[in-house]
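Risk register update: the risk of archive-format incompatibility is retired. Evidence:
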Amino acid sequence: MVERLSKTSRDTYDVWFFLKTRAPINRGIVENRSRMRFDQLVGKCISKLEKMNNRHILDGVGELLTTSQKDWAKVSLRDETIALLKLRAEG
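Archived output:
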């Protein structure tokens, strides 16, 4: 997500989905791929999302969502993803 955040919001949706469904995260793989500690990466994701403009929140994912899902994503996807990342960082 951190690598492509400015290019597509699909990763934001995917991260939200995996966190919402409590999918297990292999921290070793994440840390190896990102070359940073898991908590640092989560902090970086949160920081990037907080700076992100909702104007393009549907880029790369809008065509896959229903109208009601698009409405939700425009209003809540970014904030809910930030909240879930903060919870995962604490846990």
